[in-house]
Amino acid sequence: MSLSPSYQSIFSSFIKSPVSTPAYIYSNQKLIQNISLFSELTKKHLIQVHYAMKANNNAQILRMVKDAGLSVDVNSLGELTQAMKIGFLPSNLIFAGVGKTDSELELAVKLGLKTIKVESVDELLVLSEITNHLGISANIGLRLNPEIDAKTHPYIATGLATSKFGIDKRDIDQIISILSNFPLLRLTTLDAHIGSQITDLNLFVDVFTFLSNQANFINKKGFSITDLDLGGGFAIEYDGSGQSTLPELDTLFSKIALLNNGAFKISIEPGRAVVANTCAILTRVLYTKTNGDKNFAIVDAAMTDNIRPSLYGSVHPIVKIGQGSVSETLVYDVVGPVCESGDFLGEDVSLSQCKRGDFLAILDSGAYTSAMASNYNMRPLLPEYLEKDGCLIEIRRRQNVNEWLENLEIPYEG
Ligand SMILES: Cc1ncc(COP(=O)(O)O)c(C=O)c1O
Fold first, then answer.
1. Do 69 and 39 contact (CB within 8 A), yes or no?
2. Is the CB of 269 under 6 A from ligand 1?
3. Burial 172-191 (b: 16+ CB within 10 A, else e)
């Protein structure tokens, strides 16, 4: 396996001054590299980039995104609050999500967000009531279901005819007639997000063509759609090499610019491609054992810290840190302490023989890992560190079990 230099730096910094495990460690250098590639795109192709913070909502990463002049796409009140705390201007924020609550929509209208994405006729009607009641207009986008197969894992394919996401083509006429009657709802954007971990970038050309045809059709009815949002979904190689589809985005957006010919402003919402290959989970081997013909390395990280292997069958490369003298290679299931057979971080992983106290790194763990972490089995959320110039800087504290339980408690005298 050819490891990216950023992982090599993470490992040498960890060996030099280990932090307590399990922990997420991010590479400052790789984050800068990925974020810069996207800010280059904004400069060269005038693409607007809204980082999908559902991939990773760490405050330091968001600060880096903001400092590079990019904005964010939020999906809940929590993400909206976090984005504003970091200093993103509401007028640059996009609010997406198939099930926004009434109070989330009301807040989005009051804050004057850049775009509120609407995903159903029902949601549009609720939004029209809210804007009428408040007497405030709102910029809205329609997330359409383009019925394009992203050719990815079914759980992260979101543009199929039967997905819960987006507006069915058959509902577009009804949406248009509702919009004609509610001048406070200003339709500015058409959007589609067909899925995640998309390796065939030509699908984004199909998305662009679909959206621009729809926008031209709708604009003929007296609307002024100015923006097309092609969503996120750009893939990375889950092999520890640091490779992603990013270098190909330049060619993709040159192609789209030719087709677009300045007709619409184009935006994208990358998440995974910004963060996935910037982080390793450092974990310690607690025990090893052999049950039947299976060798297990039982580690202190778990499915609660990276649910992707159990949820999607994702394969993250796992390597041993500071191997010392080379020993026999064995095949292990790397499993956590949680009471589920689905609690594994890697299956059939070849590692030089493991023993209690060895350290392993689960690579490419920057996207949909800490953001999807849970407290199952009452496990505290892990700390996060940034590896910068050979030092590990804490950027999120380990959840303190006592404080956490205290905050949950409601005094009850019954
Ligand atoms: C609406 C929307 N935009 C953007 C993204 C980011 O996708 P990715 O992380 O694959 O780039 C997602 C993720 O599922 C999404 O649902």
1. yes
2. yes
3. beebbebbeebebbbbbbbb
Catalytically annotated residues? 339
The tens digit of pLDDT for each residue in 217-246 reads 999 999 999 999 999 999 999 999 999 888
Using CA positions, which residue lies closest to atom 4 of ligand 1? 232
Per-residue pLDDT of 279-298, as tens digits, reads: 999 999 999 999 999 999 99
Residue 356 burial (10 A CB sphere; 0-12, 13-18, 19+): exposed
Is residue 151 within 8 A of residue 201, CB to CB? The reply is no
- How many residues can be counted in the chain? 414
In whole angstroms, give the CA distance from residue 395 to residue 304: 19
Pocket lining: 308 vs ligand 1, CB cutoff 6 Å:
no
Instruction: Give all domains of the chain, ordered by start, each with its CATH number.
Output: 28-273 (3.20.20.10), 277-401 (2.40.37.10)
Alpha carbon separation from 265 to 46, 145, 213, 261 (Å, rounded) = 8, 20, 14, 10
- Asked whether 22 lines ligand 1 (CB < 6 A), one says no
Q: Which of 144, 246, 268, 269 to mutate to test the pocket of ligand 1 (most atoms within 8 A of CB)?
A: 269
Task: Report how far apart, in Å, the C-alpha atoms of 296 and of each of 115, 204, 306, 345 are.
Answer: 49, 42, 18, 11
**CB of 194 closer than 6 A to ligand 1?**
no
Mean pLDDT within 308-325: 90
Binning pLDDT at 50, 70 and 90, where does residue 323 land?
low
Reference 288, options 349, 346, 340, 356; nearest CA is: 356
Report pLDDT digits (tens) over 157-205.
777 778 889 999 999 999 999 999 999 999 999 999 999 999 999 999 9
> Ligand 1 center to residue 192 CA distance, Å?
10
Cis peptide before 18 (omega within 30 of 0): no
Ligand 1 pocket test target in 37, 38, 41, 54 with most atoms within 8 Å of CB: 54
Q: Say if residues 370 and 282 touch (Cβ distance below 8 Å).
A: no
Specify whether the CB–CB gap between 194 and 159 falls below 8 A. yes
